[in-house]
Amino acid sequence: MDLKPTRDGFGEGLLELGKTNPNVVALSGDLEDSARAIWFKHAYPERFFSVGIAEQDMVGTAAGLAMMGKIPFACSFSQFVTSKALEQLRLAVCYQQLNVKIAG
Question: What is the pTM (predicted TM-score) of this model?
Answer without folding.
Answer: 0.92
